[in-house]
Amino acid sequence: MAPQCSVYIATSLDGFIAEEDGGLAFLESAESATEDYGYSEFIATVDVIVMGRGTYEVGLSFPSWCYEGKRVIVLTTGPERPSVHGEEFSSETPAALVERLGREGVRRIYVDGGVTIRSFLAAGLIDDLTISVVPAILGRGIPLFGLGTPALALTLESAESYRTGLVQLRYRRA
């Protein structure tokens, strides 16, 4: 059975997942010492995290590795770098990777990073999306979706607003 492929990501109100330079400072406006917006519950259901090289590099820049205890696969076409936290590198297509992970018994994949999410969408592999909209307009940056993103009908499962102004939308493929 094919694993469920899930997106869990934050965007600005105008659809950017990062600033032009890859910065994430806009997310600070929605940070909360008491609210993780369901992330802990979500990540507990994830067997493998698949991300692109750019997202991986951003993750390495954080003070601590935020994927501790999870299997991480970095999709890359460039030269492999040494594994820092036990992550694996793969040049497989999304379809080939999902098929292999399914054979390995993986049940849920967390797909992260704009390019990687768009490539999984193009392959028809995304089952559900949790998108947290942060109350900020960037005007420009790295888009979650963009020209060339394939059409996909979605069903809204829930919408929740928080005191920080963040609105979280949960969709399933229709």
Task: Spell out the key features of this protein.
174 residues; eight-stranded mixed β-sheet; two-stranded antiparallel ribbon; 31% strand
Please tell me about this protein's structure.
By secondary structure, the protein is of the alpha/beta class. Helix content is 19%, strand content 31%. It is built from 4 helices and 10 strands; from the N terminus they run ββαβαββαβαββββ. It has helices spanning 39-43, 53-61, 94-103, 114-122, and strands at residues 4-12, 16-18, 48-52, 71-75, 88-90, 108-112, 128-134, 142-143, 154-161, 167-173. The strands form 2 sheets. The chain has an 8-stranded mixed beta sheet. Strands 2-8 form a two-stranded antiparallel ribbon. The chain is globular.
